[in-house]
TrEMBL record:
Record key words, sorted: ATP-binding, Kinase, Membrane, Nucleotide-binding, Serine/threonine-protein kinase, Transferase, Transmembrane, Transmembrane helix
Keyword Metal-binding: no
Pfam families: Pkinase
GO terms, molecular function: ATP binding; protein serine/threonine kinase activity
InterPro entries in the cross-refs: Kinase-like_dom_sf, Prot_kinase_dom, Ser/Thr_kinase_AS
Protein name listed in UniProt: non-specific serine/threonine protein kinase
Ranges of residues in domain Protein kinase: 21-287
Transmembrane residue ranges: 316-338
């Protein structure tokens, strides 16, 4: 969402939204809704209150709003924005849906990237947290479908040993695996620059689609350049004709991981859980994707992303010093080697 100038809607009758939320200021705006800082007068805390636009109340959009609210209320994870409440309110004479969420004062990743590329250890920490959130979402049978920098919030309040905290937001076009298709045939949902090839071609959208999009986000964070630029049509079609270009100056381990995540063949991509394990530097004894490995072969990694793990330990107060060189690892039939830093 982007900050903009617009009037704060007011309840038709004086009083707080839903009888308890006092609107304070506008903090963001998107295509179908606006977000406000509000005061919960019952619990005495500030919250984010998302109000869907009056002009978006066509039948399909109403169904999508209800679906988003139900979906968000059922998802609870540190890497996701928490949902507290939801309801309907008469704003300026029109009945509109609202949802009350955790107020996250972080900046979005797209704003961070306006200042240039990020340090590899920051990208690894951010990627691990978002991959963990996606792994949880996928376990619940949900595909996000719009993983992009604008939907990733980051801040300096680290946790679990990470220097910076990351959260994934905006489930407006997410859907349940195997669920009813919410758009007309031929409609492509998502942001063109980060769509997976199968989203562009109208193929089956699976958790692997989110992994592809996250791969493009991490690549952009490391290189400072959006991989697929141009018009919406140009950006969407480009990925069906070529692979993402991974810079040669990135560490080999990054090259191999990003290459796997952005494979045009969805079956060649690692799962979000496997990406999180690699970025965490944790052993992952068995790769569950199809990959290119022979039957029965295992993914042997020792101290992957050693530099990140050492930083995380220092941040957590364990005082562990950097030691040794990252060992050669086997991932998707490719050797993961070369230290991240």
């Amino acid at each position: 969402m982007t900050t903009t100038d617009y009037a704060t809607p007011q309840p038709a009758r004086s009083g707080a939204v839903g009888g308890r939320y006092q609107l304070l200021e506008a903090i963001g705006s998107g295509g179908a809704a606006s977000v406000y800082r509000a005061r919960d007068t019952v619990l005495g805390r500030d919250v984010a209150l998302k109000v869907f636009r009056a002009e978006s109340v066509v039948a399909d959009e109403l169904v999508r709003q209800e679906r988003e609210i139900r979906m968000l209320s059922g998802l609870q994870h540190p890497g996701l924005i928490a949902v507290y409440d939801a309801g309907r309110q008469n704003f300026d004479g029109s009945i509109r849906r609202f949802v009350v969420m955790e107020l996250v004062s972080h900046a979005s990743l797209d704003k961070e990237l306006e200042r240039g590329k990020m340090a590899p250890h920051d990208v690894a920490g951010l990627g691990a947290q978002i991959a963990e959130a996606l792994a949880y979402v996928h376990e619940q049978g949900v595909v996000h479908r719009d993983v992009k920098p604008a939907n990733i919030l980051i801040g300096d309040g680290g946790s679990a040993g990470f220097r910076r905290r990351a959260k994934l937001g905006d489930f407006g076009i997410a859907h349940y695996l195997g669920g009813h298709r919410m758009t007309s045939d031929g409609t492509i949902l998502g942001t063109a620059a980060y769509l997976s090839p199968e989203q562009v071609t109208g193929g089956e959208v699976t958790p692997a689609s989110d992994v592809y999009s996250l791969g493009l986000v991490l690549l952009e964070a490391l290189s400072g350049v959006q991989e697929f630029e141009g018009t919406v049509l140009e950006a969407a079609i480009a990925r069906t004709n070529r692979d993402a270009r991974i810079p040669d100056d990135l560490a080999e381990e990054w090259q191999l991981l990003l290459g796997a995540m952005t494979s045009r063949d969805a079956k060649e991509r690692p799962s979000a859980a496997e990406v999180a394990a690699i970025l965490h530097g944790q052993p992952e004894p068995e790769f569950t994707g199809t990959g290119r490995r022979a039957k029965g072969s295992r993914l042997h990694r020792r101290n992957a992303f050693h530099g990140l793990r050492s930083r995380r330990r220092r941040n957590a107060g364990l005082g562990v010093a950097l030691a040794g060189i990252v060992a050669v690892s086997f991932f998707l039939g490719l050797w993961l080697g070369a230290a991240l830093f």
